[in-house]
Here is the input.
Amino acid sequence: MDFDPKEWVALVKAAGMKYITITSKHHDGFAMFDSKLTDWDIVDRTPYKKDIIKMLADECHKQGIKLFFYHSHLDWYQDNYFPLGRTGQTSDVLPQATGTNTSITWTVSFLSFLQNYGEIGGIWFDGFWDKKDADWRLEKTYKLIHSLSLQL
Here is the structure.
């Protein structure tokens, strides 16, 4: 079946659902939106070449369905993720530690993608379990999210 956001949202609405949750970025770093931070995304790395998050967000707004994101903070393939967390210690799927950055330098710049999609119902963050002692900068992240929602 081809991706048809109009059909998907209509189906959700007809079933009585009030929201959709979609993975915007998973632990492997692949983004389902047109990322400005990397080309490891659906627009730059697939034959589809479309920002499905934008398409889905537009249709959710038209049909009155809230859109939520599942978004992983961690990214196994970014240099600032090294040294690898618990997952990287036992997995043969992850890349070898090639990064030169030995300190964790988490940023919230990835959240700038939210400005492209209008009102968002919420975000479920994942990945904290892999580096429990990391400075995830949650207060800064939540402030940014709230400031973006106030601008809408």
